[in-house]
Amino acid sequence: MSTGTPPDDPATARRRQRLAYTAWIEQICRSDPGARTALRSGLRRDIDDVPRMHRLVTRWLPQGRAVSATEQRAYYAVAAMIADRPRSSLGTAAPAPDDDTAHEDTAPAGTDSEKSPGDSDSDGAASQKTTARYGDSLGMAFALAVTTGPGRDREMRESTAEARLNLLTRQSTNGLHRHLPAAVRYLRDLAVPVDWAQLLDDLIAWPAHSGRISRRWLQDYYRLRAADLRAKAEDGDRQELEESGLLHVPGPRAQSPDPSPTTTA
């Protein structure tokens, strides 16, 4: 009777691999300015025009099967967008290994032994249990860009975010690759995190499933916006009731004084 950890389902295994890839790209961008420059050179460019990226990205492409140009392009595009950030925004990291050995402790994509940087054999089972099958969509990121805005800036952000998101959902594959860098830079400037692994997954699937992906982006955006508006309306109603005296907000309970000690004659 086997007592080993059950294998991931395909969606979970795929997400683990893409999380490993995007985490490694972020790590190498933090620690190696030359690698970050090489990756950034691929922004909005075709994969045949980015020779400096091949030494970094090729090792992560799925192995053991034919990889379409569309799938390869997604890997390159996400790496370029991650690199298109100020180095300070990537945080700090330990120095990266030499380029020739940087990937020796991380199995190439498409193998059963792949790990994200920092994983160890002892925590492999735990990480398998906690890895979600899907991540946060780009629609959720645009919703966060609005909800984190203060006052009147929120209205301006809502108009811009909604317009940008709708523009992306109407694009062909080529159009999406052309418009995504500016959209991601907009989110970055507002300090909104992007789920790179999920974006990679969506880019790969876009040619065949753009309608489904667009629907998810828009539904996630409007779902979060509705929840935020509902919460703010409830807070406003509560504050109005408190100010009118119709809602009693109990204060801290007064402490009973300690009884005086009994004295004996």
From TrEMBL:
Residues 88-128, 232-265 are annotated as: Disordered. InterPro entries: CRISPR-assoc_prot_Cse2, Cse2_sf. Pfam families: CRISPR_Cse2. Residues 232-241 have a biased composition (Basic and acidic residues). It comes from the Bacteria. This is Type I-E CRISPR-associated protein Cse2/CasB. It comes from Streptomyces xinghaiensis. The gene is casB.
